[in-house]
Amino acid sequence: MLLDADLTVLLFGLVVVSLVLSHIHSRLFSRASLPDELPWVGAKGSALSRAKAVLLSVVKTRQYLEEGYYKYSKQNKPYVLPNILTGPEVIIPMSQLRWLLEQPDSILSQNEVNRQFLEADYTMLHPNIIRDTVHERVIRREMTNQLGPLTEDMVDEVEFALEQNWGVDTEEWREVPVYDTMADIIRRISNRVLVGVPLCRDKDYLKSSGSFSRNVVITAGMINLLPHFLRPYIIPMIQKRKEQIAKNEKFPVSSYKEQNDYIQWALRHAFKHWDPNERTSEMISKRLAVLSFAAIQSSVITMTNTLFDLVSSPFAAGFMSDLRNEVELELGQESGSWTKTCLARMTHIDSALRESMRLCGFVSRGVLKMVVAPEGVTLPDGTHLPPGTKVGVSAYSIHHDESAYSGAYIYDAFRFSRPSKDAAKVECVTANKAEKAARDALKGKTPALVTTSDTFMAFSHGRHACPGRFFAAHQLKLTLAHIMLNYDIEPLAERPENKWLVSSIGPPMKSTIRVKRRPGTVGAI
Ligand code: HEM
């Protein structure tokens, strides 16, 4: 009997090992049916050399992108970028970007790439969440339009969160971990808009929401095994709101006031949706969880990078003093009131964030799409790609190209707030009302943080550019402006490095800075 059990375990082990080996073998040696004439960066041509390049993509993707850009993209040729996690990608030259943007989703789909990268069928709690982008519509129609009315709440939250994380001591310097404190601050501000008070200040809720966001990327594929963390917090709240809406529809009372947060907007949209599944409290809470992931991690990384870029610059002291002067001046003109227009006029704050996203953004490839047309697709240079191929451009390379940005590897905080030849190159392809307003505020001279272009793809570009970027910009500008106004920060001699893992770029997670509350600011804000 014992022998039988041992044999079963052994056989099971052998099956698992051979499955893993066959997966590794296919990842290393698969050409993904790509045409022979397409060159692979980092490889010489033989199957073994390609396998080595795939293996080394774990640590060499930045090198591959730099090499591929000058060897192929600049010569208007596509090339293959090895990727051990999600398979090879075809990187097309910038001259073919316009063509890529114009392809319909039925031929080249951005959604499919995200589904695969995030293992969305397993991680995203419900298959509809990636297939039907309901929250994209809620973000575009509701969240972006509510930025003005929501500013006061967001300011309230920034002030509270900064005091909690960085303290109010005006005498002694305090050492703070940048990533952790920014994670707490951004999570609080975002949740103020997503779920409102009191939940946005509930420690257990914030902890659960934070661990969900981190785990989607770290344990893609296993997240479904985690308990439905939102259940105890969100579901009863949604039920209650639904009851309130229904009651008010039946017996309207003048004292009834809807809350202005994501849950309320999502409820409104859900009731208009044709699919009854979309109206359940469960589905709304799942969509909220996924949105928190998209919204929070990206802003935390951006804020962390911006602070390190600013304080490690040889011009840190001058940058910070100019930023502070700008905030004081613009705020003074509004009698101390943080309005949307006042923020729009803070062009140095805007630029300091945009410049960090250019230099250190976490997106290395821009506009990555998957060929979904069953017959495949033919690139403008005649190369035919089979279905399943991933195609994109190298955002990292264009962001670091001297011909697009002079001093491309230097953090130049006011690059985008001083009119320059770089700014003149920006062409806004996806202008909408809010984007136009942001550009007008900058008198059309310089690109705003939210403006995407052929040379700025930190929010991606085209139809599927990040719909949350208006909210993100608002939240990031409010946070940076408050920091500049209320804290002194000791400059750093050297910037702690960002880490590349395959094609993802992470900020320094453990590095610290020293901060001190500025005299006269405590209780003044
Ligand atoms: C600095 C902060 C942010 C950055 C850098 C960023 C960046 C991006 C990028 C690069 C994409 C395109 C991904 C792709 O398909 O290739 C994207 C998509 C998306 N982002 Fe953001 N994002 C930020 C903040 C936000 C916020 C605050 C929200 C929500 C309020 C949000 C919601 C979304 C959604 C829903 C999509 C998917 C759009 C679609 O599939 O068409 N993002 N974001």
From TrEMBL:
InterPro entries: Cyt_P450, Cyt_P450_CS, Cyt_P450_E_grp-IV, Cyt_P450_sf. The keyword Iron applies. GO terms for molecular function: heme binding; iron ion binding; monooxygenase activity; oxidoreductase activity, acting on paired donors, with incorporation or reduction of molecular oxygen. The keyword Cell inner membrane does not apply. Keywords: Heme, Iron, Metal-binding, Monooxygenase, Oxidoreductase. It comes from the Eukaryota. Belongs to the cytochrome P450 family. This is Cytochrome P450.
